[in-house]
Amino acid sequence: MKKYILFIIGLYSASVALAQILPLHTAPDGGNKKASIGEQIAIVKIDINYSRPGIKGREGRIWGTNVAHYGLQDLGHGTCYAAPWRAGANENTTFSFSHPVQVEGKDLPAGTYGFFIVNDVNESTLIFSKNSTSWGSFYYKPEDDALRVTVKNQPLEKSEEWLKYEFTDQTDSSVMVSLSWEKRRIPFRISAKVKELQIAEFKKDLLTTRPPDDFVQAANYCLENNIELEQALAWIDRGIYFRIMGQKTFRTLSTKAAILKKMNRDSEADKIMLEALPLGSMTDVHFYGRSLLSAKKTADAIKVFQDNYNKYPNQYTTNIGMARGLSASGNYKKALEFAKSALPLAPDAANKASVENSIIKLEKGLDINTY
């Protein structure tokens, strides 16, 4: 009997423990809808988690009432006697940022924040609180504020039944976040120093053994944005020369040459390209030749196109390269011969049409490199 009683007690204890681990699945309180949205600004991840109260027949009785009160009020519960609005329903509305951001131009470190609003008729004071785990704003403390900013409210022509947050007006380095409910919109801009953050992320990522293409990617980011060129050079040197993992390829060497060019170290860049060209594919060399044409280095481009043609004769790409180089030098008659040779080698209808157009231009004595 004693063993039986102990067995029953054991079963009861296990069931209580299981009940604590596995709560009942129920809908959000008060018929509110739980929601979450996310957006990225470059590498910066932004996540908003909130509950969506509805108007539910209270049109015209939302703002400035006990639903979304103005100012700071004693809500009759919790430890706070001067509480802002919870900016949603139920638990804290939260904003999470993977990296530091600026809200309306003011700095906010990475992290997860409770979000509250001090409402008023024409403007709203937004509060990002270090307390993100309490229920509503009943336990709000001003000393937990990480940031406060004030923005102008905007009217909505059409009433929004369910409160919502949305991302709009995205740029490369910012996004507009808006809270919309009933006939009011509260917008604010979140931005990030994306280039600084990306460089910092690369520096962390590359503190380990990596394949050469990773160093090419990081170096090219600097090159394309014309930033941290010394760092880019150090990275690409690792991609080329680093023991075991470093590789001399057309891609790694031409990236180094491009960085040196950007740094006005032309003679060094030219020397590196002489080493890179024999390692390039027919297409690699062709597009390098075209880049020389764009830089108005016609004689250098013709040499590159000629070497490519000698290595890969009777190819569409090399014939077109010769046509472009000779056309840029004004030798339209010789360019026309190469263009006509390229025509039957065209790989598809679009390229065939392009060559046909080039032939017409050359017959008229026009440069095919101008559009």
In the CATH hierarchy, what is the class of the largest domain?
Mainly Alpha
CATH superfamily of the largest domain: Tetratricopeptide repeat domain
The gross shape turns out to be elongated
Tell me how many strands there are. 10
Strand order of the largest sheet: 1-2-3-6-7-8
Strand content: 15-25%
Helical residues, percent:
40-55%
| Name given to the CATH architecture of the largest domain | Alpha Horseshoe
* Sheet having the most strands: 6 strands, antiparallel
User: Alpha-carbon distance between the termini?
Assistant: 98 Å
List the keywords:
371 residues, Serine Threonine Protein Phosphatase 5, Tetratricopeptide repeat, 6-stranded antiparallel sheet, 4-stranded antiparallel sheet
Question: Could you describe the 3D structure shown?
Answer:
The chain has helices at residues 2-21, 194-205, 212-225, 229-241, 250-262, 266-276, 282-294, 298-311, 316-328, 332-342, 349-363; strands at residues 33-41, 44-52, 93-97, 101-103, 106-108, 111-119, 123-129, 145-152, 154-168, 174-191. It folds into 2 domains: 28-192, no CATH class; 195-363, Serine Threonine Protein Phosphatase 5, Tetratricopeptide repeat (Alpha Horseshoe). Helix content is 40%, strand content 23%. The strands form 2 sheets. It has a 6-stranded antiparallel β-sheet, with no helix packed on it. The chain has a 4-stranded antiparallel β-sheet with strand order 5-4-10-9, with no helix packed on it. The model has no long low-confidence stretch (mean pLDDT 93). The protein is built from 11 helices and 10 strands. By secondary structure, it is an alpha+beta fold.
